[in-house]
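Exercise (ungraded).
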Amino acid sequence: MGGEFTAPEFAWAQLWPLLVVFGTALAGVGVEAFAPRSARRLLQAGLAGAGLLAALVGTIVVGADLTERGDGAARGEVTAAGAVVVDGPTVFLWGLLVVVAAGGLLLFAERRVDAGLPVFAGQASVPPGTSASPAGAGGAGDAAGAGGAAGEAPSYERWEHTEVYPLLVFALAGMMLFAAAGDLLTMFVALEVLSLPLYLLCGLARRRRLLSQEAAMKYFLLGAYSSGFFVYGAALLYGYAGTLSLAGIAASVRAGAGPEVLLLAGTALVLVGLFFKVGAVPFHAWTPDVYQGAPTAVTAFMAAATKIAAFGAILRLLHVGLGDARWNWTPLLWAISILTMVAGVVLAVGQTEVKRLLAYSSIAHTGFLLTGVLGLRAAGDLGEGQVGSLQAVLFYLATYGVATVGIFAVTTLVRDPGGEAGDVARWSGLGRRSPLVAGTFAVFLLSLAGIPLTAGFVGKWSVFAVAASAGAWPVVAVAVTCSIVAVYFYVRHIVLMFFADPPVDPPAVVVPSPATSVTIGLALVATVALGVVPGPLLDLAGHAGSFLR
Amino acid sequence: MDDLTPYLVLSAILFSIGAVGVLVRRNAIVVFMCVELMLNASNLALVVFAKQHGNLEGQVAAFFVMVVAAAEVVVGLAIIMTIFRSRRSASVDDASLLKY
């Protein structure tokens, strides 16, 4: 041991979008401490919006000016002593994450759908069932006895947890770091920075407090459990390679230096942690519960953004760190991918709750994305005009991200007196009463199903093509079968909306404020546009090049 | 250099106790303690490997894991507290409104 510490070099010119996001989150904490309650909401939303805008501009600026490296396949900068890698895929994922977070931010700021009340609880520490915090249909029963004396308590009904805005920005910062992490320690810290705010956000729903709290607890306990596996896996990989950096691990794998048992066990445990985050079977159990219990605005952000960030990390780990140990993890990935697709689709068929249905569909999408990850091959093996594994997955993430934010945003509009109309049966006949809302929902469903002329089709086609060209045709066969089964439950919902009779007391369809309308509108335009002319985004994903090693 | 295998075995045992504990215990606080045990087992492994490889990276990583674990405690106990206040129970079996 010993030796001198040398200060690491920071490439500020490449890192600043990430730092802007972290800075915005910290400034948000300051606003929370010093601004008066009445001014906080506007201040926080404006601050977060400005931060995201700056980050988006920064991402574009940084992306347009990445330095060429090596043979030109990868561009970018390894910085902060190898902890952060800003390369083409990183910048692409950053852009995607910021856009999705902006959609989430707009949904967070929505007030009109719930009669002028904010989406989040007035005071999270007040037990549900007291007059200060209306408990919805989800769990008023067993909460009634638990409520404290509410007679003289001040009413928190008009209050709002404005902390949600800094929490959203912190989560975004963690995700951006997660996608850029160049060593396992940074990856772990980023994993926690993105997860901890999300655990809290899940528990802050205004309606159905008990469901929301339960979702937060389940997400937290299982998330902490999986991060325990991740750290132990990282420790074993460190034991194997003597370093935590992905490039160092790759060098050890090439040299075949360490004991192989550590490599195998470490890879498996690290992947458990990452597969949990994307909700791959058998680590998917939290997904439906959390998607259902969390406030829908949070679900929209989390469902899209966590998956984008975690797939970024999975791709980087498998391509950069363990690319040469491919023969060890490919069989594992085959099995997980097939299991995930089949379980997601089969369990989705029986769902009667809209958000749970979408949750199981998101599990199936994880499986489809994993088929794309399977298609990893050396860049030199690719024929002219063929889509690379990385490019296909990045494009799929974009199509999935916009459709997910859009579809959950539409879900907030159909409401019963106690909250959102979750039951699928309540949606029957919606197409006759509000063709616009039902039509929008149908377009997003068709995109998730992968029907041609929507973005989902191009995404699915590209990941399947990649997997097939890499020789994983059994997985592709299962994937195509699953897609066909999946069409059944998506189209069943559309048929229900347009061709069934409405219930006796149909749910109200509210007209949202511009915040939600803009989110839905942009997501809709993007979903259709990416389906009709996917070329530009595919080119952009291709232009991102490969990971910097 | 001393034989470091016993320390690794100890860390594996601690990790297993934690992992199994999460699955079998009912109280959310105890489940959470088991998670912390898993993190600490990882710390032990990191430090042992740092000694074996003769570099500091593992020891530094152990510090980071400790800091993150502390942050996790803050968030986790807050969530468990709110659920205890509304249910008068911290049992993970009682929180079963969301299923299938």
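Further reading is listed at the end of the chapter. For now, observe: Chain A touches chain B through 49 residues (CB under 8 Å). Residues 6 and 146 of chain A are 57 Å apart (CA to CA).
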